[in-house]
Structure formats: structure tokens, C-alpha cells
Amino acid sequence: MRRLGAVVLALALLAQINTAVAQPAPSAPAPAQTHQDWKPLAIGLGAIAGVVVFNAVALGFEALPGGLAVEAGATVPAEMSVAISRVYATTAAVVGGLIAYYTLYPSGH
Amino acid sequence: MRSLSSPASAAVLAATLLVPSLASAQKAPPPVAETPKAAPADTPYVDYRVLAVGAGAVMGIVAFNVLSAPLGAVPLAGGALEVVPYSVALGSRLLAAASASVGALAATWAYDTYYKTETDYRYLVALAAGAIAGVAAGNYLTIGSFGILPYYAGAGEEAAGGALASTGAQAASRVYVIGSGVLGAWAADYLYRH
Predict the structure, then answer these.
(1) Does pLDDT of A31 surpass 60?
(2) By CB neighbour count within 10 A (0-12 exposed, 13-18 middle, 19+ buried), where does B160 fall?
(3) How far is B37 from chain A (nearest CA, A)?
(4) Looking at residue B160, what is its pLDDT?
(5) Which residues constitute the domain of residue B127?
(6) Which of B21, B75, B170 sits opposite A40 (nearest CB)?
(7) Which of A43, A104, B54, B149 could form a disulfide with B9 if both were Cys (CB 3.0 to 4.6 A apart)?
(8) Shortest CA distance to A50 belongs to which of B46, B130, B17, B67?
(9) What is the DSSP string of A80-102?
(10) Total domain count for chain B?
(11) What is the per-residue DSSP string for B118-184?
(12) Which residues have CB under 8 Å from B113's CB, separation 6+?
């Protein structure tokens, strides 16, 4: 009888252990959702694109950096050089602004 | 999620001149139960994000000018540069502000449409308008006129009778356009929120 009691007790303990193991582990706290705000980047790229598109449509590809459409030895007209300068100014300003923004406000807040 | 875009965009706009961010109005601090009659927190004169982006934009163009100086006033232009009349250089600043502003607004609309986000377009437009107004004011203070818009081939020759900008002035003009645009956007931000 003692032996039977010991077996029953062992089985009961084993069942308890199994039940405990079956319990779902306490869920770890969900990692904080890091939402990156890409809208400023889109706006900056849009600003650059606005300048580039205007230059190409109004003045042609000679008005873009690189001089690919400029004949060798040619002199770059005033309206073309200031147009190229617009692209540089806008691009540099956008890059600087985005660096400052994402450095100081990585999550947008 | 208005806050996402607002100032950041504005800044960008301002920066680009334009460019400014979006909008979100500043959220008032939550009321403190113990001091219900406490005065509301002071609203900054200019949104800090717009300030940051604007300052970054100016630093960006200054850095570009310094680093590209060995390559000439207009790097990779493709040839020798004709002299540029002041009126054309100033008009070019207005074109930069306007085209960048339009591009930034269009990009914001595309972003909102694709990602189903919201933007305070009145604020954005105010920042862009402020940037353009800032550039125009800077032009007027420089030579007493807003300049001639060089939006077609040959515009430079037609304005050749005016004073001529040196190559150094051409490079400096990039800093002026960004600086005046940023100041204008900051002023617009202040006026919009006060």
C-alpha cells in the first residue's frame, strides 16, 4: 500500500510539473515600436526633384550639373550656370537640413 | 501622426528653401492635477524642428561652398562660365525657392496618398510662402529689385546690361538664397502659430 501511495504521489507530482511546463511562458514585454518618420526625406527629395525638373523642362539638360549636354569648349550661358547652381544649393540645403533633423529628432518627435 | 511631418518637412522646405515641414501644431503639455491653474507652457517662437532643419540647411550650403571651392564657382558646369548679371542671379534665387517649394508640396501629397498619412497643408504652404517671401525680400534689399527670372534660354543675354556678379558672388548667392529662405520660413512659422 505504501508503494502504491508513493507511485500515486509521484504521478501527481509529475502531472503537476507537466501542467506547469505547459503553461505559456510569461510574455516578454513587446519591443518598443520604433517608427521612423520618412516624410521629411520625401519632402527634401521632392524639393530637389522640383528644381531639377524645372531646369530640364524650361532650359534643357544643359541646365543640369555634369555638362553632358554642353559642347566641348563652349561657354556656359548665365541662365545655365545659375540653373546648375540652383541644383547645388537646393541639394546641399536639403542634405544639411535632413542631417540636422534626423540627428536631433531620430524618431520625428 | 501630424507631428511626423510637420516641422520636419517645413524644415526641409525651408532648407530647400523652402522647405518646411509639416505641420503639426505643438501639443499643449498635459494639465497638472495639483496645479490646475498653472499657466500653459511657453510656446517657442519657432518650432524647434523647423529651427534645426533651417540651421542645418544653411550649414549644408556653407559646407558645400567650402568643399567645392577648388572646383570653381559652379562645379561641373561643362565649360567656362559667362558673366552673370546680378538681376539674373537674384531672379534665379526666386526660381529655386518656387520650384523647390512646388516639388516639396507635390512630394508631400504623394507621400500622404501612398502611406495614408495626414499633413497640415496650410502650414506647409505658409512655410513655403514664407521662404519665397524671404528670398524676395533679400533680393530687394540687395539691389532694390526682385531680379529677372531666367526661365528661358537667352535670359542672361537680355539682362546683360545690368551689373555683373563675379564668380565669387555666384557661389555666395547660394548661401544668400538658402539663408533668406530659411529666415522667411522661420518668420512664417512664428506668424502661423501665434
Answers:
(1) no
(2) middle
(3) 27
(4) 66
(5) 2-36+43-193
(6) B21
(7) A43
(8) B17
(9) HHHHHHHHHHHHHHHHHHHHHHH
(10) 1
(11) ---HHHHHHHHHHHHHHHHHHHHHHHSS------STTHHHHTTTS-EE-HHHHHHHHHHHHHHHHHH
(12) none
What pLDDT score was predicted for residue A9?
A: 55
By C-alpha distance, the chain A residue nearest B182 is: A93
Roughly what angle, to the nearest 10 degrees, separates helices A78-104 and B2-15?
140
What is the C-alpha separation between B106 and B89, in angstroms, rounded? Answer: 26
Please give the single-letter amino acid code of residue A77: P
Tell me the average pLDDT of chain A. 78
Contacts of B157 in chain A (CB under 8 A): 77-78
Residues B113-133 pLDDT 10s: 999 999 999 999 999 999 999
Cβ of B157 under 8 Å from any chain A Cβ? yes
Q: Do B15 and A97 touch (CB under 8 A)?
A: yes
Name the average pLDDT for chain B: 81
> Residues 15-44, chain B: which have Cβ within 8 Å of A?
15-19, 21-22
Does the pTM of the predicted model rise above 0.90? no
One-letter amino acid for residue B64 of the chain: F
At what angle are helices B86-115 and A78-104 packed, to 10 degrees?
40
Which residues in chain A have Cβ-Cβ distances shorter than 8 Å to B71?
Answer: none
Q: Check residue B174 and give its pLDDT.
A: 94
Q: What is the mean pLDDT of residues B159-171?
A: 78
B117: left (phi over 0), alpha (psi -120 to 50) or beta: beta
Report whether pLDDT(B17) > 50.
Answer: no
CB contact under 8 A, A51 and B84: no
User: Which residues of chain A have a CB within 8 Å of the CB of B180?
Assistant: none
Contact A39, B9 (CB under 8 A): yes
